[in-house]
């Protein structure tokens, strides 16, 4: 039941459509003023009215009924009160019957969304800088799916470039296969660092690297096999991390796959007279669009990151016929994506408007700085391990007899890592602090997880089955509006907002809407828990248990969409 929509439908204003009114109706934060409010300020300007007068008119004309039972105006706002009994019954019945489907919908049916995220580089460390793209992308992936879209998660591997010549050469010269088998990406990174150090002393190494790059491209079996080993080690390591973070992909085609398609891209650009020569290089001049030129081919004929992205974009359109194609990539690449989209537009790709760069800020760790070139790397794996260890010692201190302590700590540690980068508007830089993200009283995953565990233990003690629609309706039968406190009703209203929160998250591509929502629900639940006895409330017990279950269901679904698991006990 979308009460906002219900209210908007009943407000008829000349020249203003229902959607516009719908967008203005807000949920009142405090139930004592009403449940919804319509601010009349912008509407008044458009209708050439005074806000106070307009609010009064709307309030007087609004057709009250058994759902919207009171309508009043104050200072340019119209306040609507909903019949609490009705709303509570509808909301709780819906949540309890839908269970882990609550919040899902079919609005995306028949539409395909491609999401390029995480997109790691082969043989490079998987570090803290990759956390946001991985987690934000995965969250969007899960929400799109939940709302009925067909989603293609793409890990566009960085598996092409001159660095592989360096690495394969370094591997052959200094690499110890046994060491690499155990040390994995870290040992590979050491080789990379060593190469750069040596190359400073001996200029011929760069020449060697180019030679090896060529050998890989030409299919030299020894070089290719080293390259494949590096790739396998990378994928093995990142896959383990993805598994922990509950991240999935459907398409792993990397940059190297698109090399074969580069000549076609060049031909197409050429036939549209978009290419110009510049010092032997081929470029698309974007001066008219206030951008530096898009470099398509270097003077030695090699393609660039941008060229391969053009080919990959065309491939995605052809293969998946997407309705939207998203790139979850750091804001450092803003220019790259602006150029990419502009070149595709100049190529008359009418689908370029369906592409979007979902940019995000940087993540750093309090008191630590990272520089991949100098080998100072903060590995994501270490951050995760550290968080799990800290979680374990916190629980050890709070609840040493907890069964399955290690598994609970795993869920809490991972939850903290995920939540920390999502709980912020994505464009903001994040400074990661272990103490903050594992604070049980803060705006954290463990606060929400703890609330779930609390709800769960109440339900266990309450020992009541709330699965069947009829039994819920029956249990709630005697409930009346006066039985529902303001705090309880604030919680119920919040719970009913979940489906629209998910839709808003996708409109703005801001997963922080989900984390903030989860925090608010948890706070309201804890307020309710402090104010209203649940288990010894006699005739209200079933209603309050139903509310507890509905909260648990909603929070569990919200966390699941973030890739965070909920321990039963904490
Ligand atoms: N591998 C790239 C990097 O680490 C990110 C790739 C993003 N996706 C894309 N289609 N360009 O910077």
Q: Which features characterize this protein?
A:
570 residues, alpha/beta, 4-stranded parallel sheet, 22 helices, 13 strands, 54% helix
Q: Nearest-angstrom radius of gyration?
A: 28 Å
Lateral arrangement of strands in the main beta sheet: 1-2-4-3
Morphology call? globular
The major β-sheet equals: 4 strands, antiparallel
Subunit organisation of the chains:
single chain
Indicate the proportion of strand residues. 5-15%
Unreliable sequence segments = none
> How many DSSP E strands?
13
* Helix content range: 40-55%
What does the average pLDDT come to? 93
Structural class of the helices, strands and pairings? alpha/beta
Which ions and ligands are bound to the chains? arginine
How many helical elements? Answer: 22
Distance between the termini: 34 Å
Descriptive report:
This protein is of the alpha/beta class and 570 residues long. Helices cover 54% and strands 10% of the residues. It contains 22 helices and 13 strands. The chain has helices at residues 3-9, 18-24, 41-47, 51-61, 84-98, 131-146, 163-174, 177-201, 204-218, 221-245, 262-271, 305-320, 334-346, 380-398, 405-422, 434-437, 445-462, 469-475, 486-496, 498-508, 512-531, 541-562; strands spanning 26-27, 36-39, 68-74, 77-82, 112-116, 150-154, 275-278, 281-284, 294-297, 324-328, 355-358, 363-365, 430-432. The strands form four sheets. A four-stranded antiparallel β-sheet has the order 1-2-4-3. The chain has a four-stranded parallel β-sheet with strand order 6-5-10-11, sandwiched between helices. Strands 7-8-9 form a three-stranded antiparallel β-sheet. α1 crosses α2 and α19 (486-496) runs parallel beside α22. The chain is globular, with a radius of gyration of 28 Å. The two termini are 34 Å apart. The mean pLDDT is 93. It binds arginine (ARG). Arginine binds next to loops. Residues 116, 119, 121, 156, 158, 309, 327, 329 line the site of arginine.
């Amino acid at each position: 039941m979308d009460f906002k929509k219900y209210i908007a439908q009943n407000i008829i204003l000349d020249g203003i459509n229902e959607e516009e009114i719908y967008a203005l109706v807000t949920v009142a934060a405090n139930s004592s003023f009403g449940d919804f409010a319509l601010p009349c300020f912008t509407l008044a300007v458009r209708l050439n009215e005074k806000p106070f007068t307009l609010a009064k008119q709307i309030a007087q004309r609004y057709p009250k009924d058994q759902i919207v039972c009171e309508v009043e105006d104050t200072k340019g706002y119209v306040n609507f009160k909903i019949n609490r009994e009705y709303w509570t019954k509808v909301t709780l019945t819906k949540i309890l019957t839908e269970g882990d489907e609550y919040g899902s919908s079919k609005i995306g049916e028949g539409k395909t969304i491609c999401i390029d995220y995480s997109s790691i580089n082969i043989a490079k460390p998987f570090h803290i800088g990759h956390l946001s793209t991985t987690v934000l992308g995965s969250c969007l992936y899960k929400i799109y799916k939940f709302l009925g879209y067909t989603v293609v998660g793409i890990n566009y591997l960085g598996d092409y470039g001159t660095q592989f010549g360096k690495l394969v050469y370094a591997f052959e010269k200094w690499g110890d296969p046994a060491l690499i088998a155990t040390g994995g990406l870290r040992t590979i990174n050491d080789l990379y660092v060593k190469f750069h150090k040596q190359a400073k002393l001996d200029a011929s190494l760069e020449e060697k690297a180019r030679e090896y790059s060529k050998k890989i491209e030409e299919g030299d079996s020894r070089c290719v096999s080293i390259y494949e080993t590096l790739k396998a080690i990378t994928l093995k390591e990142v896959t383990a991390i993805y598994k922990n973070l509950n991240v999935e992909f459907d398409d792993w085609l990397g940059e190297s796959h698109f090399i074969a398609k580069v000549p076609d891209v060049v031909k197409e650009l050429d036939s549209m007279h978009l290419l110009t020569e510049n010092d032997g290089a081929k470029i698309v001049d974007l001066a008219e669009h206030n951008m530096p030129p898009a470099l398509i081919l270097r003077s030695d004929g090699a393609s660039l990151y941008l060229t391969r992205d053009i080919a990959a974009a065309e491939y995605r359109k052809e293969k998946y016929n997407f309705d939207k194609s998203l790139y979850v990539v750091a804001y450092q690449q803003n220019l790259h994506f602006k150029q990419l989209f502009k070149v595709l537009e100049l190529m008359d790709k009418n689908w370029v408007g369906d592409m979007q760069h979902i940019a995000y800020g940087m993540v750093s760790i309090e008191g630590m700085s990272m520089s991949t070139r100098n080998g100072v790397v903060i590995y994501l794996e270490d951050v995760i391990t550290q968080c799990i260890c800290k979680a374990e010692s916190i629980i050890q201190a709070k609840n040493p007899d907890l069964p399955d302590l290690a598994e609970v700590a795993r869920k809490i540690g991972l939850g903290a890592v995920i939540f920390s980068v999502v709980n912020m508007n994505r464009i903001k830089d994040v400074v990661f602090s272990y103490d903050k993200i594992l604070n049980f009283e803060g705006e954290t995953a463990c606060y929400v997880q703890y609330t779930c565990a609390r709800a769960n233990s109440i339900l266990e003690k309450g020992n009541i089955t709330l699965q069947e629609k009829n039994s819920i309706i029956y249990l709630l039968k005697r409930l009346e509006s006066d039985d529902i406190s303001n705090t309880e009703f604030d919680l119920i209203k919040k719970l009913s907002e979940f489906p629209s929160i998910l839709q808003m998250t996708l409109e703005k591509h801001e997963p922080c809407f989900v984390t903030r929502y989860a925090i608010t629900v948890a706070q309201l639940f804890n307020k309710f828990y402090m104010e209203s006895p649940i288990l010894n409330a006699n005739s209200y017990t079933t209603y309050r248990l139903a509310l507890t279950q509905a909260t648990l269901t909603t929070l569990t679904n919200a966390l699941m969409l973030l890739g965070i698991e909920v321990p039963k006990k904490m």
